[in-house]
Amino acid sequence: MTASHRSVVAHLNADECAAALGDLLAERADLSADVERLAMGRLQRQDAEVVANEVARNLQRIPLEALAAGAGRRRGGYVHETDAAWALLEETVQPYVDDLQRRARLGLTDAAGQLALGLVAGLYRCRDAEDGTVLGYAGEDAAEELAEWAVREAVGAGLHLRPGSLAEAARDWSLDEMLV
């Protein structure tokens, strides 16, 4: 592959990359086992600390403009800023829940478990939300309630988290009780 081809591939967006991979596999079915192996290896790798940092950063960076856009008078009623804040928080956390469920369905329980623990740890880091932030508008127990939801989803996905692991991720919350 020439340098110009590499640069084109590097500039593909996610959809174009997926389409190119599909085209390649259609042309070269002999590569499908290698692609499957590489994909499985990528999905098996998950670091709870990396997830925790990302979750906390994403929750703390939700702009107040998004809250303002979601709250207030709407056709058919009024959306309170607390409800709008919750919608934004759930929208931010949902992809992590979806990902842990996807990995659990694939039998990648270690990676799904690391994702769940990272999600809880990231939420725990957001427990003392400042007033005037989207987290603050959601209420003082928002992070813990989101963590409880995530744990319920993880348990519902068939994950068996190690006893004590949630207490390590969120020491002041009683999430380990949910594993019984």
Largest pleated sheet = 2 strands, antiparallel
Rg is 20 Å
- Strand runs, count: 2
Strand order within the widest beta sheet: 1-2
Number of domains: 2
Secondary-structure element pattern, one letter each: HHHHHEEHHHHH
DSSP strand content: under 5%
Structural class: mainly alpha
Total count of helical runs of at least 4 residues: 10
User: What is the approximate shape?
Assistant: globular
| Helix fraction by DSSP (H/I, runs of at least 4) | 55-70%
Distance between the termini: 54 Å
Rounded mean pLDDT is 90
Unreliable residue stretches: none
Account of the 3D structure:
This protein is mainly alpha-helical and 180 residues long. The protein has 2 domains: 1-44, no CATH class; 46-179, no CATH class. It is built from 10 helices and 2 strands. The protein has a two-stranded antiparallel ribbon. β1 (72-74) and β2 (77-79) form a beta hairpin.
Brief write-up:
The chain has 180 residues and is mainly α. It has helices at 3-10, 14-27, 32-44, 48-60, 64-70, 81-105, 109-125, 134-138, 142-156, 165-169, and strands at residues 72-74, 77-79. The protein has 10 helices and 2 strands; from the N terminus they run αααααββααααα.
Can you give keywords for this protein?
mainly alpha, 3% strand
